[in-house]
Fold each of these.
Amino acid sequence: MKLIKPSVEFKGSFLYAVEAFAAEGNAHFFKNPVVEENFEHYCETLIGYETGIGLPEGYVDETILWMVDNDQYIGNISIRHWLTDNLLKTGGHIGYIIAPNQRKKGYGTKILELGLFEALRFGMNKVLVTCDKNNTASIKIIERNKGKFENEMYSEHARVWKRRYWIDL
Ligand SMILES: CC(C)(COP(=O)(O)OP(=O)(O)OC[C@H]1O[C@@H](n2cnc3c(N)ncnc32)[C@H](O)[C@@H]1OP(=O)(O)O)[C@@H](O)C(=O)NCCC(=O)NCCS
């Protein structure tokens, strides 16, 4: 398994996962509606976010990578290059999601581990990772990746308490 830049090669399993994300109410992880007809353009758009091209208003540059295993799309990780006030409070540097049919196989723990290597490669030396207070799986993932708990803060936007962790790279 590895992290790659978004690629047309994984179109089938990616679109399958996106439908499942939408069905569980997680469509918001995908800033652009997925354009099936011009998937190559969609992938290029995601890649452009790394250098700030085409980002929605108020979003910081972010690197979006896909975890793939053999010929299957497994999940997404986003690494934001710096923090705004809101990201510092509750959003954090890193977000990740695993395709519903691939969960509970260790991929969530692995995607964060691989993402931390990428963050180090960009020159980051510590990252903030947050998760909902009741997200048991994500708490385990962050703590297994040496997250040091700082505190909880309330997200007005998401209307939930977020646990905030720092990870030294
Ligand atoms: C959170 C998420 C990434 C976990 O992915 P995953 O691939 O299932 O994670 P792992 O397989 O590495 O599991 C890590 C631990 O969490 C546990 N776990 C996984 N899903 C769980 C759930 N729904 N409830 C309770 N524990 C769960 C696993 O059993 C494992 O613990 P164990 O080793 O003690 O058994 C995935 O559920 C997801 O994409 N959720 C929606 C988006 C999200 O919440 N992203 C995180 C934002 S911070």
Amino acid sequence: MIRHIIAAIATILALWAMFFMYRLDQEADRFGQIHKIIEETKMEVKIEKHPEAVQPIEEPESIQQAPNGEAKKKEDEIQKQLKALKERAGNVMAFKVSPLYKQKCSSCHGVNGEGIIGPRLIGKSPDEVLQALHDFKSGKRKNYVMYGLLSKMNEQQLEDLAKEIGTFEQKLKASQQ
Ligand code: HEC
């Protein structure tokens, strides 16, 4: 009888031990999986990082050199334009212009509308100029510089400017005689 009880207890202990081991295994498995996931993510990071760290050293330089070269070219162009701007600003005006034109427009279109950064305005009719100004102001003709500038000006000023610019050609000719 006692033997049977001991055997039963032993069996229960054995079963419990087996169950315990099974649980441990599961836990270990979970840890293993977590470990694997971590490893995999590490691998992914490595895979992504390496091509960036190794390849780009050669490629981006050549890629970057192009924009750098272009940027330099653009800078040179801007410097040239600025130089031209300064030279022209130093030039004696062929004829007088209104304070409004001088203040708002001459920096880009030249003291006498000869054109620098902005296009040449000499020879344009008042209607042409006014149309252009209206189109810039309404946004129909897209140019942020002209749009920003004109948004602060009223209709009367635009008309005055258009009228004045329309006289530039004649004034220039008169000054050259
Ligand atoms: C910061 C520079 C800048 C200033 C200041 C400026 N403009 Fe312009 N303007 C431009 C540029 C750039 C263009 C060319 C835009 C385009 O064609 O899209 C232009 C275009 C024009 C045109 C159209 C010319 C054409 O050939 O179609 C007129 C007219 C004009 N501007 C008048 C003026 C008047 C008037 C003022 C002063 C109130 C003025 N601009 C001030 C840069 C400027």
